[in-house]
């Protein structure tokens, strides 16, 4: 397949995904996709991964998300159908479906990505969950769910029932400990690890300042 038809497919994907995710407020809006795609291309260049596969998989990675579909099978089928009508080659279709089904929702979590392109796109998605952007997305998600940003009187998770945790436990601050601060050590590529280090430090500084303000410690000398 030549460069021109690949670019035409990528352009068609951008338009479709933008339209599909335009109104999403759960953290999978079009601009998340745009950032992940940009990062995936940068990482791919450094890793000498297939740029076209990385870009196409990044563009499509959240379309099949369970939160946005009746089931994960339905979500994956939607992507598969789109790839066929766009005349993506059988080989690339299989590769892209493998990436998306492994990385994009809880079913695949924990399973290592089987190709370099998969590792690149997964890193790009994880990088968007940390740093300043990650902090912003976490608070936006909490607002969308109607949750508190922080509750210093929260009992340890083991002492809460599932219902209690759902209604009051899942604060934005809690999410840092459950997920965000762990992502740095889960990066696949060296380039992503370096970016993650800096974003991780930024989150630690944020938390430090957050607790200072929470307890008015920054006014201690006033
Ligand atoms: P993705 O698959 O793109 O990484 P997720 O569906 O896991 O996205 O989450 C979307 C955004 O919402 C991410 O920034 C994530 O950190 C945030 N998020 C997910 N679950 C929670 C939660 N329980 N509390 C706060 N933020 C959350
Ligand atoms: Ni994503």
UniProtKB/TrEMBL annotation:
Signal peptide: none annotated. InterPro entries: HD/PDEase_dom (IPR003607), HD_domain (IPR006674). Residues 29-130 form the HD domain. This is HD domain-containing protein.
């Amino acid at each position: 397949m030549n460069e021109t038809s690949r670019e035409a497919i990528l352009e068609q994907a951008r338009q479709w995904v933008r339209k599909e995710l335009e109104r999403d407020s759960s953290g999978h809006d079009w601009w998340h996709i745009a950032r992940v795609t940009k990062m995936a291309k940068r990482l791919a260049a450094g890793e000498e991964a297939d740029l076209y596969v990385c870009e196409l998989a990044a563009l499509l990675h959240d379309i099949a998300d369970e939160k946005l579909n009746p089931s994960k099978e339905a979500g994956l089928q939607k992507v598969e159908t789109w790839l066929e009508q766009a005349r993506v080659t059988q080989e690339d279709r299989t590769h892209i479906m493998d990436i998306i089904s492994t990385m994009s929702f809880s079913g695949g979590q924990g399973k290592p990505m089987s190709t370099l392109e998969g590792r690149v796109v997964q890193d790009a998605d994880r990088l968007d969950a940390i740093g300043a952007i990650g902090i912003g997305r976490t608070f936006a998600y909490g607002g969308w769910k109607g949750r508190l940003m922080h509750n210093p009187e929260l009992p340890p998770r083991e002492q809460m029932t599932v219902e209690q945790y759902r209604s009051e436990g899942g604060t934005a601050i809690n999410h840092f400990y459950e997920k965000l601060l762990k992502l740095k050590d889960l990066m696949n590529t060296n380039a992503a690890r370096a970016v993650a280090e800096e974003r991780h430090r930024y989150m630690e500084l944020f938390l430090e300042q957050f607790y200072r303000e929470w307890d008015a410690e920054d006014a201690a000398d006033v």
